[in-house]
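BUG: 3D viewer hangs when loading the predicted structure for this chain

Environment: internal workstation, default settings.
Expected: structure renders.
Actual: progress bar stalls at 90%.

Input used:
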Amino acid sequence: MTTEVRGPSEHRRRWAITGASQGFGRALTEEVLARGHDAVVVVRDPESLQELKAEFGERLAVLTADLRDETAVAEVGEALTDLDVNVLINNAGRAIVGAVEEIGLGELREQLELNFFAAAALTRAVLPLMRAKGSGAIVQMSSQGGRVSFPAAGAYSASKFALEGWSEALAAEVGPLGIGVMLVEPSRFRTGFNTAHSLGMTSETDAYAAIVGPARADLAEVDGRQEGDPVRAAAIIVDLVEPSLATDGGLPLRLPLGAEAVRRLRAAYSGNAAEVERLAAVAESADFPGMRPSQRAV
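Structure tokens produced before the viewer hung:
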């Protein structure tokens, strides 16, 4: 395999990318290397990157870890600090599909461990380094399911909603320090996310078969037919991050990707705004009478 090198980049940086063996992670790794940057990637199977490693040599550092393991996450965090990364892309993740009642607390914790806590731990690990330099970028691969949930996606959306809320606060805290934070909210992309290897399915119960069944079938059968192109998505993400590093800012907080994400998020935001207006008078009546509008620092 030969990858076209569109560089070297005027501002060569070191990008850390988790979940780089396939999908968004693989596409982002190839895009970053093609632009002349260095990459540090985290995968469970290092053999999945043999071709890239042979082509790019020392410009590609491969760390092997299962980010569901707290000890492994801590070790990766130490390695990223030692490697002086400029950009962190928290991409590793998977979905456990099933009705809320069908998913046990152990499975729910596993979902949060990988999709939220691992990302939070690695972000915290690189922040002191980025603060010292006064620059850096953190990209959190969320989902349209991080803003809108639906039957069968309760556990997955819980992990992504957590990532979104945590990262929104983070962006406000580190933006003044020169560090950008961007949440990426893709719709359906051909990433391997929907393969049997990646997608966890709970045992189906009769009570929820008619409600959750269609979503189960859609998620399991859509692989290879998704509308989104991860290569195009990777180019868009890198296009946004590169200039933000040069100017110490300018990243959008949220980046929806794919026409379906735009359509669904527009509908969700419009619906939420309409519901607030419909209930505004009732909501405001809960305050003590005669109170002045609140004055807060945030």
